[in-house]
Every structure is written in C-alpha cells, then in structure tokens.
Amino acid sequence: MAEAGAHLTSTAVNEQPSVFEVLAQESLMEAVKPALRHAVKVLAETNPSRFGFLWQRFDELYLLLDLLLQNHFLSHCSASFSENFYGLKRVSGGWGLSVGLGLHRKSHWRSLLLLCLVPYLRAKLEATLAQQRDEADFSIQLAQSRRQRLYRAAVAAYPYVRSAWQALSFCQQLLFIFGVARTHSPLLWLARVKLARLNAQDIRDMELKSSNTGYPADQSLVQKVWWLISRAARGVAIPLSTSLSLGVFFLQFLEWWYSSENQSTMKTLTSLPAPPPPLHLQEERSSDSRNCPLCRRLCTNTTVLSTSGFVFCYRCIYMYVKANHRCPVTGYPTELQHLIKIYTPES
C-alpha cells in the first residue's frame, strides 16, 4: 500500500478528492487496455495458430480479467483498481466522509457492473459501428431481417447518445469542481457511491483484512473455490499495482501513443512489409495464380490482404475476414480495413 500512503498527508484537512485525482485515476485504467491489446497483438502475429484466439476473444478475456481484478479491490479496498492506486475509496450509504471501508452489498455489485460491463458494451458498440462504416464504404448490402434493421438503427444512433453522455459527464465534472455535485461521474451516481481519500485507519484495516484471509478448511466446496479465485486475483492485483507505481508515466505515454489522434503516426512507424508466403504455398499457386484460394475460381473484384499479400475475390475474403478475423492462407490476424481493392486499366 505504499502508493496509497503518499496521499495521506492531506487527509487530515479534507477527505474530498480533487478533480485532478479523480480524472487521473480514470485515465490510468484507460491506458491499461491498449497496452494489453498491443501485447496480445504481438503474440498473435508471432504465432497465429497458438495465440490467435487471444486476439479474436480479447474483449471477452479482458472483461473476465477486469471482473476478477475490480471485484478483488472492491472487496478488500472499497475502491476500483485505479481508485486504490491514487489513494481513494468508495463511500456508500449516507454519503458521509467519515465512513470507513466497506461497501454495501448493492453498491458493491452496482459498482462492479458499471466498472466492467459498461466499457465492454461500449467497445462492442464501437466495433459494430466501425464495421457498419466499412460495409457502407464498400457498398455491401447483405440480406437483413426486421430485427437486424432495428439493431442497425440502434447502433447508428449510438454516436448521438455518446455525445449526449459526454456532455452530461462534462456538466457533472463542472458541478463537482464548484462543490455542487458530490460525484464527478454519472456512473458513480448510478452506483450510489462517492469518492473520498483513504486515511491511516483505512490502511490499517486493509492490512488487517489481508492478513486474516486464511484457507477455509471447514467451509463448503463453493466457498473454497471462491477463496482460491480471490487468492489468484490478489496474486495478480498486488504485482500489477506495484509495477504501476514504477510504470505510471510509461502507461501515460502508451495512452498517448495508441490514442485515436495518434493512429496515423503509429501506423507509419510500426507498419512492416508483408512477409513472403511459405514455399509450399508458392508452389501450389504457381499453376494458376489468378484463382481465388477460397472459391478456387477465377478472381472477380480482386482484393488483396495487406497483412499477407494474397489476392482473393472480394466477396469471398470479405465474408471470411468478417467471420474469422484472420487470413485464410497464413492465419495472420486481419480486419476488414486490411482489404485493398485492386483496379486494373482493363477494369
């Protein structure tokens, strides 16, 4: 808890955190996911057959890891991972500043769902929206049912809902700065909690709680399994929190590096030439290189994958990449934006 002890100097004066602390803890967790995503992408590109599923199911695996991590910190520290890193805690119930550690059960589960499920759903909606934009750019009109049309309409309205949510969050932060609102985020208001600084008694309570968690020998099987999961989450949480104390500035750099505003620069510096295909694939395709590897017929609307360099029929490779997110020949991780149409003077 050394990272939390640095914030104890000002708790005697005021337990209300400043706007800089609450915004800093939000940006910290936003920098962790891009860093893990990049590490998984490197593994998948190194060995697609072994680590490709990590890239394809990254959002679900990250959601599971986030649930375990946040549940551990909410149970033992009454705060999320990033809030605990900045020496903050969540206070439920009467909203008082003198309340110690320990969230109400309803506040605990509301906080856990809003911390983990909302970012996951937002990432899925943004991915679906990006896919719709790609389909509109390539003029793909697939058969749709009434349910699918309603779903697409809801996703199309998402940017407006997101703008309204950002405006609401900005107004909430302004009210928090001027002391009108007790929370800086609508998510905290929905969870019925507020943030306060940790004090010396809270640190002692956390250390005492961690020292009293022994193996439940006389408990049921479910409680024993839950104890093992909690210990595993603690084994991940403590090294991660300690390493972040040393690498917080590096994570802030990663947040900037992988931000949407810096994507063009990142792609220019990190893009690599497509590797040559394996020799046995070259021999197989030497007989008639104009055939599509998927349908085995002459390529129509020829399209090349920038990740592997192979040429396919546009519809064949579009449907395959949309379903599998990889090159059908080499297995390299591939997205729809890696499709490049080939135009010839004859066409």
From TrEMBL:
Pathway: Protein modification; protein ubiquitination
Source organism superkingdom: Eukaryota
CDD domains per UniProt: mRING_PEX12 (cd16451)
Mode of membrane association: Multi-pass membrane protein
Residue ranges annotated for the Pex N-terminal domain, each copy included: 25-260
UniProt KW Transport keyword: yes
Database matches in InterPro entries: PEX12, Pex_N, Znf_RING/FYVE/PHD
BP GO terms, sorted: protein import into peroxisome matrix; protein monoubiquitination
Locations listed in the record: Peroxisome membrane
One Pfam family, short name: Pex2_Pex12
Principal subcellular localization: membrane
This protein's record includes keyword ATP-binding: no
GO MF terms, alphabetically ordered: ubiquitin-protein transferase activity; zinc ion binding
GO CC annotation: peroxisomal importomer complex; peroxisomal membrane
Alphabetical UniProt keywords: Membrane, Metal-binding, Peroxisome, Protein transport, Transmembrane, Transmembrane helix, Transport, Zinc, Zinc-finger
Family indicated by similarity: Belongs to the pex2/pex10/pex12 family.
Role summary: Component of a retrotranslocation channel required for peroxisome organization by mediating export of the PEX5 receptor from peroxisomes to the cytosol, thereby promoting PEX5 recycling. The retrotranslocation channel is composed of PEX2, PEX10 and PEX12; each subunit contributing transmembrane segments that coassemble into an open channel that specifically allows the passage of PEX5 through the peroxisomal membrane. PEX12 also regulates PEX5 recycling by activating the E3 ubiquitin-protein ligase activity of PEX10.
Protein name: Peroxisome assembly protein 12
